[in-house]
């Protein structure tokens, strides 16, 4: 909805500018030949500016899309790596619980507590990593928008 409003505003501004320029030219006290020349120049200028604006918009959109694709790929890779680490920790703890026998010092409860602590640490690491990636993406987008 926001994109549509922005698009409508830009189109309305361009049309309003063209109509205003034409009105000013028509009401100016000039000869027909001068007026036609001014209209031709104004039309060419408007065409060039519109072309520049369109090209610039496509370039910026392409840059933002590429940046978002790269950052989301990095974020997905990061989450996947951390999930794999977490899976390995759970697998290791499970194998430790399975290998317990009456002679071992650690009980299943102690191993469960260790696993819980490991999971909490992994969750905090993953959360921090995702926050950093999102902040980096937001900063990059803001820098692109300011260009």
TrEMBL record:
Signal peptide: none annotated. InterPro entries: Desiccation-related_membrane, YtxH. Residues 93-147 are annotated as: Disordered. Residues 93-102, 136-147 have a biased composition (Polar residues). The chain crosses the membrane at residues 9-28. The keyword Transmembrane applies. This is Gas vesicle protein. Residues 110-127 have a biased composition (Acidic residues). The keyword Metal-binding does not apply. Keywords: Membrane, Transmembrane, Transmembrane helix.
